[in-house]
Amino acid sequence: MSNHQDQRLILDADEKIQKINIQAIKANPYQPRKTFDDERLHDLAKSIQLHGILQPIVLRKTIAGYNIVVGERRYRAANIAGLTEVPAIVKSLTDKDMMELAIIENLQREDLNAIEEAESYRKLMDDLNLTQQEVAQRLSKSRPYIANMLRLLNLPQSVSSMVRDGVLSGAHGRTLLGVKDTQQMLRIAKQASRESWSVRDLEKYVTTQFEAPKSKADLAQYTVTKPKFIRQQERQLKEQYGANVAITTKNKKGQITFEFKSEAEFKRLIHQLNEKYKHE
């Protein structure tokens, strides 16, 4: 089912909206979302107390009552608001339909992070035995987009958690996959977060550090604009020491060069550097 089919499922004209006892309703066993923001749930509960549930939830009838197909946030907020009944549409659905609709609803969340999005695509593929192309068609996305998102699941847990928590973006995560050593990847991820690097800054850093020229012929054409944070450090050192400063990186090593034009400038720089280290 596509997103559009999901909407038609809720809005079918021949379906009657029923009032269902909230105690008879249980969560969707295929719901991929395990945590719900308490603050947002309470905000929704206050809105429900004032205005009621504006859009009915969708249920499937079971022997023991009803399972939620779409609308678990509304159901949870209704519980908080103290409602005894909720408006619902009861549908006849297969387990496969239940799985797909739960995952699609999860993908429509506003607060969905990149890791959760990637996990949802993987779950669609695993649970419904779909290919990347079939997932892309169902969700009206391109296959390369799905493939790129799935790459995030290759991140080590330490870096994956930073993307999940919003410390880094999904694009940051995909860039970091170019760093093969896990410890180096984590170090760079923490630095990117600490110094608020843009994705472009991170791309330039990773390229400079880990993608050396393949031959001497490539070397002449191998020029990479310095990342923003390096340019900032050069400016700060220039202001601090009153001399031109160049910071270069290559093959995981770095060099800081101070420029002087006379013996007097050289002695002044040496004196400033010595004085700095005396006070540290």
From TrEMBL:
The keyword Transcription does not apply. GO terms for biological process: chromosome segregation; positive regulation of sporulation resulting in formation of a cellular spore. It comes from the Bacteria. It is found in: Cytoplasm, Nucleoid. CDD domains: SPO0J_N (cd16393). GO terms for molecular function: DNA binding. One of its GO terms (cellular component) is nucleoid. Keywords: Chromosome partition, DNA-binding. Belongs to the ParB family. PANTHER family: CHROMOSOME-PARTITIONING PROTEIN PARB-RELATED. This is Transcriptional regulator. The gene is parB.
